[in-house]
Amino acid sequence: MNSMKTIKRFLDPTWHPGKAAMAGIWATVAYSIAMESDKFLIGNRFSDVRFIEGLVEGEKRTRQGFILSWALHIFNGIALAELYGAIVKRYLPGPNWLKGSIFGEVFIAAAWWLTPLADKYHPLIKNGEMPPLANWRAFGQNLLRHLAFGLTLGLLYKHN
Predict the structure, then answer these.
(1) Taking a C-beta distance cutoff of 8 angstroms, is the pair 89, 12 a contact?
(2) What is the DSSP letter of 44?
(3) In the chain, what are the domain boundaries?
(4) Which of 40, 35, 45 minimizes the C-alpha distance to 145?
(5) Between residues 60 and 32, the one the model is more confident about
(6) Mean pLDDT of the chain
(7) Which among 37, 44, 92, 144 is least buried, having the fewest CB atoms inside 10 angstroms?
(8) Residue 99: closest CA among 24, 151, 160, 143
(9) Nearest alpha-carbon partner for 99 in 145, 18, 156
(10) Which range has the worst mean pLDDT, 24-33, 72-81, 129-138, 146-155?
(11) Closest C-alpha to 124, from 69, 72, 71, 47
(12) pTM exceeds cut of 0.70
């Protein structure tokens, strides 16, 4: 029972998993709109969904793989929103929109060190179908995408 008490200490007592999940879905929609838009505006055709699809299926493309990749993309957004609502939000400064924005930006900055591994091992980056990730252009693109996610998350998950 001590381990359960320890876990409960980390969880925000005001966390609402259902509200966080819905905010995560909508934040993922905002992220996806930013992703599809910036591919054309910036000219870097990196797609997170295609990246996931490459992890799931390698170089081949199937309808099932495409659907599964979108589902995993949405699930990832929900998981991040739950982490935000359950643990992180209460420790961030400022109004909700700022808390969400900080969360989105800190998340991508913390995860970015993995991009050289993606460039080295991801089948679609290796074969040239997708552009490399470990560069400033892709980093800036991901900062914008995660800002869209975090801002939307912060605006929609307002529960304190």
Answers:
(1) yes
(2) -
(3) 16-156
(4) 35
(5) 32
(6) 93
(7) 37
(8) 151
(9) 156
(10) 129-138
(11) 47
(12) yes
- What pLDDT, on a 0 to 100 scale, did the predictor assign at position 59? 87
The token duo for 101 is 């924005």
| Residue-level pLDDT at 160 | 58
CA 50 to CA 69: how far, in whole Å?
A: 7
Q: Name residue, tokens 């993922």.
A: 28
Q: Could you tell me how many residues make up the chain?
A: 160
Measured between alpha carbons, how far is residue 45 from residues 31, 37, 113, 152 in Å? 15, 10, 20, 23
Q: Is residue 39 pLDDT above 90, yes or no?
A: no
Q: What residue type is assigned to position 13 of the chain? A: P
HSE value, Cβ hemisphere, 13 Å, CA-based, for 75 = 7
Put residue 94 in one of left, alpha, beta given phi > 0 → left and psi -120 to 50 → alpha: left
